[in-house]
Amino acid sequence: MPEICLCEVIKNEKIAEGIFAISITGEGLALKARPGQFLHIKCGGERLLRRPFGICNVQGNALDFVFEVKGGGTAWLSTVKPGQKLDVLGPLGNGFSFPDGRIIVVGGGLGSPPMLFAARSVKGGVTAILGFRELGRVILVKEFSSVCDKVYLTTDDGSAGQCGQVTGPLEELLSKGGFDAVLACGQLVMQRAVAEVCESYGVPCQVSLEERMGCGVGACLVCACATVRGGLEQMSRVCLDGPVFDAREVVW
């Protein structure tokens, strides 16, 4: 069951322009956290709604998450110091499942950090494909390289790695065969393209959807998305029924 914990900040580090990585201690959270789950965090005392952050890594009693400054809440979060306490609800949501065999993890932009936790949890071989807008937005390549057999990097403008989208190296890898599943997180348009490539090669794909959230526990329905289960279309809650879904269930 999710808990509300006051977690101490261990580290708050700027890792790219406007992008920060925070480590917090939370023994109960760390023991329960699974790849693909997220934390719901209060960002400033006067702000009513929490903000969701995918779990990037778990080491001992510490959990890491990465975020981009986009508004007042995340701007406040970027200023917290070691020793401060954060009000954290979690871990929330359903995470990834890991079939036996070789797995590809695909991360787009700020969808990459949660895939590091996933890559660390794969028991067989794992290959990573990471996509970013430009060189200045590239993050965590060294960390992925430490746990993956190989890391493919793409940027929209070609300023780092291969020029183009993550679907380029993905299709190249799947066309050679030998991969048993693909796990992905990123913007919806990217995940839809990844799901279509996987479908064309008959490779199972799981996607972690990014949606605006209110409560984080399925009560407010802000994050509802259309899915198909048992042959019937229905509205699912990303925070409770997801954020990870079988790509074939998502109504894109």
Describe the model.
With 252 residues, this protein is an alpha/beta fold. It folds into three domains: 3-92, Beta Barrel (Elongation Factor Tu (Ef-tu), domain 3), CATH 2.40.30; 96-208, Rossmann fold (3-Layer(aba) Sandwich); 209-252, Dihydroorotate dehydrogenase B (pyrk subunit), domain 3 (Ribbon), CATH 2.10.240. It is built from six helices and 15 strands. The chain has helices at 27-32, 72-77, 112-121, 141-145, 167-176, 188-201, and strands at 3-16, 19-25, 38-41, 51-59, 62-68, 85-92, 103-108, 126-132, 150-155, 162-163, 181-185, 205-208, 224-229, 232-237, 244-246. It has a seven-stranded mixed β-sheet, sandwiched between helices. It has a six-stranded antiparallel barrel with strand order 1-2-5-4-3-6. A two-stranded antiparallel sheet has the order 13-14. The radius of gyration is 17 Å and the shape is globular.
Count of extended strands:
15
Which sheet architecture does the biggest sheet show?
A: 7 strands, mixed
State the end-to-end CA separation.
30 Å
Overall average residue pLDDT: 94
Shape: globular
The CATH H-level homologous superfamily of the largest domain: Nucleotide-binding domain of ferredoxin-NADP reductase (FNR) module
Stretches where pLDDT is under 50 for at least 5 consecutive residues are none
Helices and strands, in order, run as EEHEEEHEEHEHEEHEHEEEE
Number of structural domains: 3
Overall radius of gyration? 17 Å
CATH class of the largest domain, anyone? Answer: Alpha Beta
How do the strands line up in the largest sheet? 10-9-8-7-11-12-15
The assigned structural class equals alpha/beta
CATH architecture of the largest domain: 3-Layer(aba) Sandwich
Number of helices: 6
CATH-defined topology of the largest domain: Rossmann fold
Helix residue percentage: 10-25%
Q: How large a portion of the residues is in β-strands, by DSSP E?
A: 35-45%
